[in-house]
Structure formats: structure tokens, C-alpha cells
Amino acid sequence: MHERREHNLTGTDLRHVIVRGADVRGGGFTDCRLRGVDIWNVDIHGDLQNVVINGVDIAPLIEAELNRREPERAKMRPETPEGFREAWAVLEGRWFGKVARARIFDESRLHESIGDEWSFVQTLRHLCFASDAWVGRMVLGNPSPWHPLDLPWDEAPGWDGIPWDLADRPGLDEVLDVRRERQAMVRNVIEGLTIEQLDSTVTMTEPGWPQLEAFPLKECLLIVLNEEWEHRQYAERDLTVLEDS
Questions:
Q1: Where in the chain are the domains?
Q2: Distance (Å, rounded) from C-alpha 16 to C-alpha 36?
Q3: What angle do CA 154, 217, 189 make, to 5 degrees?
Q4: pTM
Q5: What is the distance between the alpha carbons of residues 210 and 133, in angstroms, rounded to a whole number?
Q6: Helix-helix angle 120-131:217-244, to 10 degrees
Q7: What whole-number distance in Å separates Cα of residue 64 and Cα of residue 219?
Q8: Whose CA is closest to 29, among 235, 40, 14?
Q9: Of 106, 75, 89, whose CA–CA distance to 172 is shortest?
Q10: CATH number of 69-244
Q11: In the prediction, which pLDDT does 58 show?
């Protein structure tokens, strides 16, 4: 298992702190106040809610700009069964193109880490994990839906019985076989989705992850849509880097 370094600064009162050259991953800044700070040359990728800078909540502005750049992104927050079916069709089409693009590379390059992040193959493995967690486990009620190639996020705490072999180097086709099965699982759920289901909740208290009670089924599906959209963007960025190197 990879090394994890954790620092919990909850409730800390910091003064005259300089953070330079830091690489922060999987953290969170919640209910914080920053005053008199200089924020220069900062690259942030994350979920923004109520982020007020110099009196302006920038989260809605960023959402609007991202949707302007890619109008189909706005479809990833559907409210109806038909909206979910449209969003999933968009994602499957986008990923079909990315896989076709990836096949032009020697397979060894698809295991290359780009910017100290996941390789293309590891990204596919993580999406299998996300589908298993939020649809296989939470929606369909299978307490242990995991495939040996599933890959949790890097900062996950680790759980008994859930695969996490970051060093494995499976072939692309081997991973794609699992990936197609998971896509079909999600597609089947979404194709049969009803308004009543969207308004329902799901509970999973068996050991493992997620463990949630009365969690909205809709949120489970939205998490999968978000994972698919965001990681497709990362994969597209990384394939461009591979092409240029």
C-alpha cells in the first residue's frame, strides 16, 4: 500500500504562515477564513461551494464558465430519468472516443503516470471502483461488488475486502472487459430508472464502503456521472501529454 501522510489542522489558529511549493491532494478547506493573504500562481481542482474571494462568491462563476466551455457538462446534473439517460449516453459516447484514441499508443505508455497522477489504465480501474461502490453496492445492494482490478482513490483509508493494487499492470483489454461490464450495469439501472426511484433512498450498513443510511439514490447516480465526466477530462489531458512527449 502506498504511503499516506495526514495532517489535521481543524480548529488551528494560524498566523504569518507561508505555504510555498506545496502539493495538497485529497484535503479539504471547510469553514475557513483567510485574511490579508497573497494567492499567486495557484492551480486548484476541486469542488467549490460558497468560496468568497474579495466579497465575490466565485463558485457559480466557475460553474458557468466550465459549462460555457463544454455545454454538455450542464447535462451531468439531471433531475429526471430522461435526463439521466441522456447524460449517460453522452458519457458513453465521449469515453468511446477516448478509448479509441488511447489505442494508438503502445500499451506500455498507457501505464505512464502523468504529472504524478494516475495512468490512463488506472483511471479506467478507478471508474470501475466508482461504479461498483455507488451502483453495485449502494443502488443494487451488493455488499461486496468488487473486482480485483478496482482501484479506490489515493487518499482512501483502505478497507478489508476491497481491492487496492496500485502497482498492478493489467492489459488494456483486460481492464476494458471489466469496464464494459460496469458500464452495462450502470446503463441498465439508468434505463429502468423511474421518478419514484429518484425520490427514494438507499441504505448499506454492511462492512466496507460506502456505509450510509437513507442516502438519496439520486445522489449515488450523480456521483457516478461526476466521476465519469471529471476523469474523462483528466484522461483527455493526459493523452494529449503523451502525444506531445
A1: 69-244
A2: 10
A3: 90
A4: 0.86
A5: 7
A6: 170
A7: 21
A8: 14
A9: 106
A10: 1.20.120.450
A11: 92
Peptide bond into 152 cis (omega under 30): no
- The 10s digit of each residue's pLDDT in 78-113 is 999 999 999 999 999 999 999 999 999 999 999 999
Task: Name the nearest CA neighbour of 160 among 177, 175, 141, 143.
Answer: 143
Question: What are the strands, taking DSSP E only, across the chain?
Answer: 52-53, 56-57, 201-204, 212-216
Output phi, psi for 112, to 5 deg. -80, 135
Tell whether the torsion through CA atoms of 122, 123, 124 and 126 is positive or negative. positive
User: Which cell goes with 16?
Assistant: 504569518
Phi-psi label, residue 55: left if phi above 0, alpha if psi -120 to 50, beta otherwise: left
Check: CB of residue 242 under 8 Å from CB of residue 105: yes
Q: Residues 154-179: what's their mean pLDDT?
A: 94
Q: Take residue 45 and report the three cell numbers written for it.
A: 481542482
Please give the grid coordinates belonging to residue 52.
468568497
